[in-house]
Design brief:
Radius of gyration of chain B: 13 Å
Helix content of chain A: under 10%
Shape of chain B: globular
Distance between the termini of chain B: 38 Å
Number of strands of chain B: 11
Structural class of chain B: mainly beta
Order of helices and strands of chain B: EEEEEEEEEEE
Number of domains of chain B: 1
Distance between the termini of chain A: 34 Å
Helix content of chain B: under 10%
Order of helices and strands of chain A: EEEEEEEEEEE
Oligomer: heterodimer
Strand content of chain B: over 45%
CATH class of chain B: Mainly Beta
Largest interface: A-B, 38 and 35 residues
Number of helices of chain B: 0
Strand content of chain A: over 45%
Largest sheet of chain B: 6 strands, mixed
Structural class of chain A: mainly beta
CATH class of chain A: Mainly Beta
CATH architecture of chain A: Sandwich
Largest sheet of chain A: 7 strands, mixed
CATH superfamily of chain A: Immunoglobulins
Radius of gyration of chain A: 15 Å
CATH architecture of chain B: Sandwich
CATH topology of chain A: Immunoglobulin-like
Number of domains of chain A: 1
Chain lengths: 126, 112
């Protein structure tokens, strides 16, 4: 039973189209994220939602719009696709947001702040 | 501005020997660090973590060391096995940011 599932796994589309990638987690986590891995293999945070509230909105073009209908789902909609949008998009979730306090915790924490990733969605824009 | 750096893009190690993967960071606000392993066509999977109150954490064959003064952490795998061949990412997060910042990864190849 997949913990964080993304669909579609592969998406090939033309420039200018609009597309969506969906993500669902069955872990009961409160926080979900979108990461982008580009051709240079950087894993960059794009967005994060905690209990359906947007808490991270990195400098991404406003053609990218995340939507979280409920805690278990975080979708990514991309308008007017460009060649540079080609990448692998990873969805992730964590039980809670990290508030700091490495000082309070044991060496490996309880797992509440570990990110669990989906398998990724490879988007190719032609 | 890359706040988390893995300066070695690749590493080859003989089976049974120790693999040492390194990671440097620049932001002194980071206080929780994680290592992830990634196989092709899969998402990163969590391996081990360490908080800033510790300088070492072990889990089986994996040990992470943290040197706060040098802003450096390392992952030791011993003994290395062919199944450990993957890309390893270090990540860091700090108070008030919520953002997990990832390094660019090191591709480990364990030779049988």
């Amino acid at each position: 039973d997949t913990a964080v599932s993304q669909t579609p796994k592969y998406l090939v589309t033309q420039m200018g189209n609009d597309k969506s990638i969906k993500c669902e987690q069955n872990l009961g986590h409160d926080t979900m994220y979108w990461y982008k891995q580009d051709s240079k293999k950087f894993l960059k945070i794009m967005f994060s939602y905690n209990n359906k509230e947007l808490i991270i909105n990195e400098t991404v073009p406003n053609r990218f719009s995340p939507k979280s209908p409920d805690k278990a789902h975080l979708n990514l909609h991309i308008n007017s696709l460009e060649l540079g949008d080609s990448a692998v998009y990873f969805c992730a979730s964590s039980q809670e947001i990290y508030l700091g306090g490495g000082q309070r915790t044991s060496g490996s924490l309880s797992g509440a702040n570990v990110l669990t990733f989906g398998a990724g969605s490879r988007l190719t824009v032609l | 501005d890359q706040q988390v750096k893995q300066n070695s893009p690749s590493l080859s190690v003989q089976e049974g020997r120790i693999s040492i993967l390194n990671c440097d960071y620049t932001n002194s606000m980071f206080d929780y660090f994680l290592w992830y392993k990634k196989y092709p066509a899969e998402g990163p999977t969590f391996l081990i973590s360490i908080s800033s109150i510790k300088d070492k954490n072990e889990d089986g064959r994996f040990t992470v060391f943290l040197n706060k003064s040098a802003k450096h952490l390392s992952l030791h795998i011993v003994p290395s096995q062919p199944g450990d061949s993957a890309v390893y990412f270090c990540a860091a997060v700090g108070s008030g940011t919520y953002k997990y910042i990832f390094g660019t990864g090191t591709r480990l190849k364990v030779l049988a």
